[in-house]
Amino acid sequence: MCQNRVSTRINVSRTQVALLPTIDAVAASFNALPNAANPVSILTTAYDHDWGSIALNLPGNGQLPNVLPPLAAFALEGGGEADGQTIGNQQIVIRLTLPATSNLAGAWVRMYPQKIDLVTGRREAMAGGAGLFGNAAASGANTVAHVVVTLPEGRLDGSSQMGVDVVIFDGGNPPRVYADQRVTRPQPAGGSAVAFANVAAGDLVLVCELGNEFANAGIPNASIPSGSTLVARRPASGTAIERFRLIDRSTIPLVWCDGNTVAKGLRGNDVIAVTTPAFADEMRGDINPNNNATAVGLNATVTLQGRNGITNLGTAGAPLPSLERLELVGLRNAGSGAGAQNIAVIGSAPALATWHEIPPIQAGNPNAPAAREVHGAGVQLTGGAINDVADFMRDRLFPASDDLANDSGTNPLPAQAIAAPAQWAAVLKTVAQGVEGEPGLYEGLDLADGAIFNGYDTIAAAIPTLPAVTAIQNLNAALRAMSRRIVNALGRQEALFALTAAIARAERLIYIETPAIDAEVIDANGADVTWLTTLTAQLTAKPALRVALCVPRELLPGTPAPLKWVRSEVWHQALDQLLAKAGDRIAIFSPGAGPFSFARLASTVVVIDDVWAMVGNTHLWRRGLSFDSSLAVTVFDETNTFSRATTIAAFRTQLAADRLGFTAVQVPLGSHEFVESLRRLTAGGGAGRLAVGALARAPVGERPTESDLRLWNRDGSLSGDADLGAWLAAISQYVTTT
């Protein structure tokens, strides 16, 4: 019914589409949005002022040593304090010195401290640290790298050395791993990180990711890459020993950040709208209205969308408790005049400066600051579907319905026609019932015959708080905005229906990257949809159909442990169904990232027969397809090569290449060869390219209950769970309530 009306339908528009395979490709597209003339709006759950892109730029002519010299470890002020005879999460500086004759100046080094996961018993790598070889603190004919790492919890008595895996990559030779190098934990120095403006006179500012250091008053403008680790180093002098102090990265002025930093191009009429993350341990970013943005030179206006609490559910447009706002969306609105260049970028990972993605991921994101390796794809749209992104953006920026009606009736959406050949795109929204607009305002409306959507006057009569008809300049625009607000407030599962329909047409290959899948039914207003049931039915109906499924070992950092265990439980249930149906035609793999490390996924991508793709962060389990707030874009291409959409086939092979550490030309194009090569790779242990081992389940006795499975993995198309209130109270330690 909704699709038959202009005011409520999902539009499919000819659009110039660029499919973006990495987090840094997304960030680079965001960096191209500001042009000083047209306003830019950005929506995200977290924003660092120094967020931007980094490119791989390494010398490629090094002589990698066969054996490393001993690593030197130094205490770091601001790196943590002791608790009796132990310390947890201590940060230290590790120095690696090599002879200049190695030709490794400018080469990249990543260090991974090792720990044992006491729940799974697996040896795993911590996020570690990274840096370039350079001239900082170098003496004689040497090149030196400094890396800041966090150590696992341990004792301070020096009774045992810490194991560190070291990766060196010069861009030419394959990455080389130097396993289990040893360092002695230094005594913690205590103290706190220093603001950039308060670095002491005489200290040098060491930029680990550049391998260089500068006088604190002499840093060249536009020189510091996104997310860099800065340390104030005081050289040894006389009897005074060399000292290191961590610099608070959130205080670095934008003028010293390089030109790939998105915020440098933003102006006063641009907006960054941040929604508080759902869970207490998720990263927040360093920008919100409570921070002094002028201290770093941020010009954009920052707004913060709070959350509805466990007992307080009265804020318009605020997310429900435990609901994740996953969207990362940017829009340049140049209007609808001749020559307008309207561009939107839809990403998946939040705008965090330490999250980068620079293949080969098995080298640990070379040239980038160290963090847990995360993959996040995205889409850039020019013209066409830009109108629907702007519609979505306005819906979020104006949570109060009267404000939405006023703005939509006054400020037209951007429009830009695109000539063939191009791509076609649809922008798909997912959100739980009862989130958009004022709580309780829309549930009582009579929608049975759809007459309320016939005109703005009908909606205004049903909702007396809206502006009168005479106050609205563009009634059609206001009708579209308010009609979409009504259907959104009742919950949307647009990606679910698009995905299910596309799978039902699959014939050769389905390629999926997603952090979670399940086999749960979603009510969706009585439709009772299960995308996995459609997939298994299609595998039965199409004997030539193959499936490649990439699912990570872990969810994103900050995810509560109970949600991780629920994800693992529903994954194993879904996997059993898939393998029972067509196990010999399905390849399942988890991407690796470095020694004893693995990649997490922020995005979900589905490619069907290399002719249709869905890209975004609408994840393929019940909460992702009906509860969490997300945006996805479906794409098909008017240009074909070998019966495949040219851009989509290239995107799929690039994604697979990046997950596996190959080049795109090494990835088979044919479905049978592609899936069989994946099956052989996984059967052989992954050859160092994959994360080994199955997704761990919760320990026996701690498995999720039926209530856990239902409420952590909620059906957002329904409301009124009898035990929801008690459950929310029980998980209050995990969720953000304001």
Nutshell version of this structure?
With about 750 residues, the protein is α+β, with helices and mostly antiparallel strands. The strands form 8 sheets. The chain has a 15-stranded mixed β-sheet that branches. Strands 6, 7, 8, 11 and 12 form a 5-stranded antiparallel β-sheet that branches. The protein has a 4-stranded antiparallel β-sheet with strand order 14-13-15-16, with no helix packed on it.
Give the overall form. Answer: globular
Q: What amount of the residues lies in strands?
A: 15-25%
- Spans of at least 5 consecutive residues whose pLDDT stays below 50 are none
What is the CATH topology of the domain at 493-712?
Answer: Endonuclease, Chain A
CATH class of the domain at 493-712: Alpha Beta
What would CATH call the architecture of the domain at 493-712? 2-Layer Sandwich
List the total number of helices.
Answer: 13
What do we call the CATH homologous superfamily of the domain at 493-712? Endonuclease Chain A
Using only CA atoms, what is the Rg? 26 Å
The tally of strands reads 35
Report helical residue fraction. Answer: 10-25%
- State mean pLDDT (0 to 100 scale): 92
Measured between the Cα atoms of the first and last residue, the distance is: 36 Å
Largest sheet: 15 strands, mixed
Helix/strand/pairing category: alpha+beta
Write a structural description.
With 738 residues, the protein is α+β, with helices and mostly antiparallel strands. The chain is 19% helix and 23% strand. The chain contains 13 helices and 35 strands. α3 packs antiparallel against α5 (475-489), α6 runs parallel beside α7 (531-541) and α7 (531-541) runs parallel beside α8. The longest helix is centred in the C-terminal third of the chain and has 22 residues, at 561-582. The radius of gyration is 26 Å and the shape is globular. The model has no long low-confidence stretch (mean pLDDT 92).
